[in-house]
Amino acid sequence: MFLAIDCGNTNTLFAIHDGEKWCAQWRTATHSTRTADEHAVWLGQIMSMHGLSFADISACVISTVVPQALFNLRNLSRRYLNAEPMIIGEPEVKLGVDVRLARPQDAGADRLVNALGAKSKYDGALLIIDSGTATTFDVVSADGAFVGGIIAPGINLSMRALHDAAARLPRIEIRQPEKVVGTDTVSAMQSGVFWGYVELIDGLVRRTKAEHEEPLTVIATGGVASLFEGASETIDHFDSDITIHGLYEVWRLNGGGAA
Fold first, then answer.
1. d(Cα 131, Cα 9) in Å, to the nearest integer?
2. Same-domain pairing of 135 and 32
3. Of 70, 160, 161, 249, which one is least surrounded by beta carbons within 10 A?
4. Lowest-pLDDT range, 160-169, 203-212, 227-236?
């Protein structure tokens, strides 16, 4: 079996592939100082609840946008899985994505992994929206090249900034309000955050499509993408597995066999 670790600024996803399909996945809050041993205690317990153990894992791929977390995640794989992990972004790891930017080094490895994962599942030119701490909009051409994108603050970051900058505004749950116009502070904030973000997504998708020659299929992924299902008018597919599927494709591309 194969373990994919996707470490974001807010959450870290652990997912296990059995060689044919993803058979389990779990999220935990990202703490860059969490040791390999602490990761192992949590991961070992939750795996055992699904009838799995570290001995079942023969390979590991790690992607992280939190450099401080890499040391402990690498040690987790070495110490408890007896596997040298494949690290996204290291020079010897091929991603198999043609980067057509003025400065190719500016393309984050996590965004290239998304491009690879999406192209392995969907045909034609794609626009991938990944909603996390930041929300990225990445364009992948029909021939699989990464041609550019957009970076915007994530919805949780926007909500936290609103609370932190205005002393009298409370922290709120992100949810679709019953009406656009709120009748109290909480519903007014929920409307501004939720519908404002939906319009940000739909507006940027429309503008991207208008300047792109190829028709674009729009795919939403990431931890909060499902919030907008049924609200956005421009998203064609909601697919939470784009990133981990990309990690699996990277592993295969770099010589991985049956997990």
1. 12
2. no
3. 161
4. 160-169
Question: Is 230 found in the same domain as 147?
Answer: yes
> Edge-to-edge strands of the sheet including 134-140?
146-153, 134-140, 125-131, 216-221, 237-238
Query: Which amino acid, 118?
Result: A
Q: How many CA atoms lie within 13 A of 25 on its CB side?
A: 16
pLDDT at 257: 60
Residue 141 and residue 40 share a domain? no
Q: Is the pLDDT of residue 201 over 70?
A: yes
Residue in this structure with the two tokens 């940027």, named with its chain if needed: 204
Tell me whether residue 108 is in a domain. Answer: no
Phi/psi at 83 (nearest 5 deg)?
Answer: -130, 135
Pairing of strands 134-140, 59-64: unpaired
Mean pLDDT, residues 242-259: 83
Our answer to whether residue 110 is catalytic in this structure is yes
Output the domain CATH number for residue 73.
3.30.420.40
Which single residue is written with the structure tokens 């550019």? 148
**Is 100 a member of any domain?**
no
- The single residue of 110, 130, 138, 239 carrying the catalytic annotation is 110
Does residue 143 carry a pLDDT above 50?
yes
- Our count of domains for the chain comes to 2
Q: What is the mean pLDDT of residues 219-245?
A: 88
Residue 197 sits in which domain range?
123-238
CB contact at 8 A, 137 and 146:
no
